[in-house]
């Protein structure tokens, strides 16, 4: 309230002004009194209209309507549940803004049980007027000084000081500890604070002060503190109501009704900020001339109109304006005023409360009026009592209408005909004013008779409630810290990635030379990419990815036509005997031929076989070892083409001409190479991961010839199997490896590819659960089930278009019960795991393209990479992260990634076509 100049004072006015001519005659005076008091009367119909209009405004604000802007804000507070009563610990609470020009510091001990409660310690500090209206920095520095003084006076052993900031102004919260002041209300107007995060401002001030290290963990509105601190009774306390310097309420709303939140389950506490309510039709007729005068001379003209009729900061002022009016019209004090009476803010809430006291009121009225420099008669004191009663009764009735709107809203959102609810009340208007509570209750019963409401006075001004929210916030912050620590080893920096790139490069060179290396660098006998002159019909098989496929590929001039059929291979077959596996493959081919009218034809066949093979020629490949969950017996060490031919012979039903065996990386490179001759690398990031590229023959030991190039299947999934990735590998990688069918093998693949990422995530989730950070510490059966967390979930969960509630739904479908905090953590885990995978993959690609560039002695290389695999294609961010990493690690290479559209079967057919072309040419 601006007290720079008394309201109604005229320039040159004398110390005390007395009757002049033109004063009303006594007979007029009772009319004047009536007229004045009448202005404070509100009818039940008017109250009902206010209730209905406020309810409507609340509902619009919940729905996020902004045109016309609803006059209440309905601010989410990030408090999701009423207290369990089990919260524990010592907390500092700093209260600012609830009780006028004072600031309170409290030390609250929560014992976790109702039975043994500990009285809080508290200290109040008066805020100098120049601080309330000065620079924001000054206000926060003042607060930090008060905290220090309090802690000096109440020394504690506790080094880990956690603070809840009870800041009672309208704020946009985006978390328990992130809160932007929208606008000052009540008597505050500090510059540079509106639009700023007040939690941050307080943290900075505490740091500037430097005496104590205090962690500000939560910001809480006074209404919320009051609701949360409410003694647990038989019914839930789901409304917090404050009538103090200002007025406001909060209540538990169904989260799905709050548009500003991305949440569809549970309840959330919403601060209504009803102080700003205004509606010309509903509130206009109730506003008196005194309300207009008060608003006009306030710090915030036009704002907080509803609050200015109820809040303790304004009630005394309204009384004073009426008294001035009546005195100036000769009805009071013999027509005399005094400078004090004419000064804004000279009558306080305390005065009004004392005057209204049923037994001592009259005596108080005399004393207070005399203190104001007036000489009251007995009749003056009586009239002043009437004025106070009129102003306060109206305040209580208006407050009741607003509370009735909240109760109707609760009833509606709970879809209940009758509502049993407890309302926690707090604030000096309640505490000091004798009749306020009573009038409010009566009016609420009249306005919402179907609600059974019990009113529970707050015991310590909401300090305990703030401490409870702080306890929850502190627990969340501790959890966040554990999460960050857990995920830290997954965050790879540039140096670490450079080391991976260099190690990969070294392993490539050793592998090519035939020296010990985790990279086998297998020659593929593919020497050239297609030149476009290939023609004919080819069969292709594609085994080793998500799907087993049989394809018919028709290569004509300028076009390749593909017909394909997916067949399933049961796990009993992938992990059964080799004979079973190859018999199954031939059965599928026979079926395919029959379906497509190809029976009896012996088309050339290319076999995409996506496992490490030592090739001795294009049509001879010895399986070195199974990878990716395949484990059919008696195949390792055998020529796969021979095994296939044997199965054909066993069946005697088909004639097949197996021309080439091709790794999926090679198939992909060839397939993309058909359209882009610069495609000299193939990359797979799917069930497994691997790469191939065109190497200079002179660098390849074990293959005759020194000129030209040959495609090398790197089998990079095995990179690190010699222990070289040891430093990067986490305990979660180790668990996934140990539980796999090939422990110690394919270590790079197990950090990158689709078959394993979900498992890494699951192991991290298990760890976080065992620390009580996730899923309330409950290790459900589901979470302990191997492979339950498919990598495709990572792709879906990480999609930008997905709301958190959808993430939750996906996880719930898996049988996990989780809160939104849990869902957010799961998302962060997924992001960390897939980001590391993409970066490692990028480091590998960088090593390869740099080697190609150096092989050719080029300053700059422009090269394309053909890519396939479900993870690469389906994950929303994987491909972007791979290329970003490559750009950083191989700055002299311009790398274009081409996604293969038709799988590597087409590539296998093309390899076959090239081989047939070469054979044909040799024959001609
Ligand atoms: C395609 C192939 O190129 O990509 C598959 O046709 C291959 O056989 C696959 O293995 C890799 O993807 P995924 O995700 O199916 O393993
Ligand atoms: C004002 C504030 C509000 C607070 C109320 C009671 O209306 O804007 O946040 O709850 O006063 O202190
Ligand atoms: C595995 C195989 C490899 C294949 C890759 C991608 O790593 O060993 O041959 O290319 O998966 O499917």
UniProtKB/TrEMBL annotation:
It catalyses: a D-hexose + ATP = a D-hexose 6-phosphate + ADP + H(+); D-fructose + ATP = D-fructose 6-phosphate + ADP + H(+); D-glucose + ATP = D-glucose 6-phosphate + ADP + H(+). It holds the Pfam family Hexokinase_1. The keyword RNA-binding does not apply. The keyword Cytoplasm does not apply. Residues 33-231, 483-674 form the Hexokinase N-terminal domain. Pathway: Carbohydrate degradation; glycolysis; D-glyceraldehyde 3-phosphate and glycerone phosphate from D-glucose: step 1/4; Carbohydrate metabolism; hexose metabolism. It is an enzyme of class 2 (transferase). Keywords: Allosteric enzyme, ATP-binding, Glycolysis, Kinase, Nucleotide-binding, Repeat, Transferase. GO terms for biological process: glucose metabolic process; glycolytic process; intracellular glucose homeostasis. Its EC number is 2.7.1.1. Residues 239-472, 680-914 form the Hexokinase C-terminal domain. PROSITE patterns: HEXOKINASE_1, HEXOKINASE_2. Catalyzes the phosphorylation of hexose, such as D-glucose and D-fructose, to hexose 6-phosphate (D-glucose 6-phosphate and D-fructose 6-phosphate, respectively). Mediates the initial step of glycolysis by catalyzing phosphorylation of D-glucose to D-glucose 6-phosphate. Belongs to the hexokinase family. This is Hexokinase-3.
